[in-house]
Amino acid sequence: MPSSADRVWYQFTAALDTLAPEVRVAFLLHEVFEASYDDIARLIGQPADTCRTHVEYAREHALPLLQPLIEPKKAPTQ
Question: Which residues neighbour 65 within 8 Å (Cβ) at sequence distance 6 or greater?
Answer without folding.
Answer: 11, 14, 15, 18
